[in-house]
Specification:
Elements (H helix, E strand, L loop, with lengths): L4 H7 L13 E4 L3 H11 L5 E4 L2 H11 L3 E5 L7 H11 L4 E6 L4 H9 L5 E4 L4 H18 L4 H6 L6
Length: about 160
């Protein structure tokens, strides 16, 4: 959502989701309907890159360098954990979030213990909770990199 001058004058605040767009969000799930659904959920917050295979997700990551990655765990040819491991090797600062539809606690524990993911979610999820978690992770990324909202805007990470 882009903040209008009128909104800024009335509230004195930049919109809740302003500033995150240029961080970028990569969504990877072998179910294309889920990818499209998540693109709709986040289209007003981030530049979105969607892939219905881990291989395509890795290509998009290398091409666009999004700072937030949301990946399903169970996919053919490569698991979400394998994909996130590769992404971490390329850019360890990327915020990686794993989605699993199964209660595979071993995978989740491994991912958390090895710092391969910042968060994990189980299917089904509410879009509101998912959006809150992903936006919070993006804001944490900015804080971890010493960026205030104003600094992030100057660096080109913020703004519509």
């Amino acid at each position: 959502m882009s903040t209008t001058w009128k909104t800024y004058r009335e509230t004195g605040k930049i919109g809740v989701d302003d500033g995150l767009r240029k961080l970028g969000l990569l969504v990877v799930d072998d179910e294309s309907a889920i990818v499209e659904s998540l693109k709709e959920v986040f289209q007003d917050v981030f530049d979105i890159y969607g892939a219905s295979s881990p291989q395509r997700g890795l290509e998009l990551f290398k091409e666009h360098g999004p700072k937030i990655v949301l990946s399903d765990q169970r996919m053919p040819q490569m698991t979400g954990l394998d994909l996130l491991t590769r992404i971490k090797e390329i850019d360890p600062d990327t915020v990686r979030i794993l989605i699993t539809g199964y209660s595979d606690i071993t995978v989740v524990v491994k991912a958390l213990n090895e710092a391969l993911v910042a968060k994990y979610l189980t299917k089904p999820w509410s879009h509101e909770d998912l959006r809150r978690i992903v936006v919070a992770a993006a804001r944490q990324y900015m804080r971890d990199h010493g960026m205030t909202v104003q600094e992030a805007m100057l660096r080109g990470f913020l703004g519509a």
